[in-house]
Amino acid sequence: DIQMTQSPSSLSASVGDRVTITCRASQGIRNALGWYQQKPGKAPKRLIYAASSLQSGVPSRFSGSGSGTEFTLTISSLQPEDFATYYCLQHNSFPNTFGGGTKVEIK
Amino acid sequence: QVQLVESGGGVVQPGRSLRLSCSASGFIFSSYAMYWVRQAPGKGLEWVTLISYDGSDKYYADFVKGRFSISRDNSKNTLYLQMNSLRAEDTAVYYCASSPLVTFDYWGQGTLVTVSS
Predict the structure, then answer these.
(1) Quick one: pLDDT band at residue A107, thresholds 50, 70, 90?
(2) Chain B from 28 to 67: CB within 8 A of any A CB
(3) pLDDT under 50 in chain B at which residues?
(4) Distances from the Cα of B81 to the Cαs of A27, A107, B16, B19, B95, in angstroms?
(5) Cβ contacts (< 8 Å) between A46 and chain B: which residues?
(6) CB atoms A98 and B45 under 8 Å
(7) How many Å apart are CA B73 and CA B27, to the nearest integer?
(8) Strand partners, A106
(9) d(CA A71, CA A68)
(10) What average pLDDT does the segment A4-11 reach?
(11) Considering CB atoms only, which of A91, A95, A101 is closest to B62?
(12) Cα of A94 to nearest chain B Cα, Å
C-alpha cells in the first residue's frame, strides 16, 4: 500500500501569511492526488484535484503543485475562513490513502 | 442540486452488523464510481472502499477486507455499505462521496456508527 506522509501535522499562522503543506508518497503516484479541507463537524471539501487543478468555486489563493512523490498545497494569503484541517488523498492505486492531516490554527 | 444523504448509522454491539445507505440525487449516479470514507472521533480521514460505476469492480482498505461489502443499486440511485463483525475501532462518522477520479466533488453529511456494548 502507498503511504502518504503529510507535514507538518499542525501549524500556527496569521491572517495574510503564506502557508505551505507537503505530502510525500512512499512510491510514485504520477499526479493522482487531491487536497481536501475539513472544518469541524463538516464533510471534507476538495480544493485541488490532479495535483494542481483548482476545484470549481475554490478561491485562487489555493494552489497545488508536484508530481511523482512530492506534493505541495499553498495558501498564498491565509484568510480567517481557511483555519481548518487539510488532507491529501492519493488515488493512483488501491487502496487509496489519505495523509495524516495538517491542522492550521490561528497564531 | 446535488445531494448525497447517508442513513443507517447508530449504536451497535461488537460483532453485530449494520448497513449504511447513501441516497444520491442531482447527478447521473449510474455513471460514476463512488466511495466511502470514515473518520473516528478526533482522528483523521480513512479511505474505506470504492465501487465502480456499474458495480463490477470493488476495492477495500485492508482493515475492512472480508468484513465490509460495498454495493450499489443504480435503479434506486443508492450506494450501500454492509458492515459485518463490527469492532470498537470501527466507530466513526462514515461519509459517502463521488470518486476522486472525476472533476466534481460531492460528499454526504456523514452518519455516525458507534460500536459499543
Answers:
(1) confident
(2) 35, 37, 44-47, 50, 59-62
(3) none
(4) 30, 41, 14, 6, 10
(5) 100, 105
(6) yes
(7) 15
(8) A13
(9) 8
(10) 98
(11) A95
(12) 7
- A59 forms beta bridges with none
pLDDT band at A12 (very low <50, low <70, confident <90, very high): very high
Q: Which residues is B95 bridged to in the sheet?
A: B37
Q: Report the C-alpha gap between B114 and A56 in whole angstroms.
A: 35
For residue A106, pLDDT beyond 90: no
**Contact A91/B104, CB-based, under 8 Å?**
no
Grid cell locating A19? 502557508
What is the structure's pLDDT at A77? Answer: 97
- The CA distance from B75 to the nearest CA of chain A, in Å, is 26
A61 in contact with B at a CB cutoff of 8 Å? no
Q: What is the pLDDT of residue A64?
A: 98
Question: Residue A56: its pLDDT value, please?
Answer: 95
> With the C-alpha atoms ordered A53, A55, A56, A60, is the resulting torsion angle positive or negative?
negative
CA dist A14 and A104 (Å) reads 10
> How many Å lie between the alpha carbon of B86 and the closest alpha carbon of chain A?
20
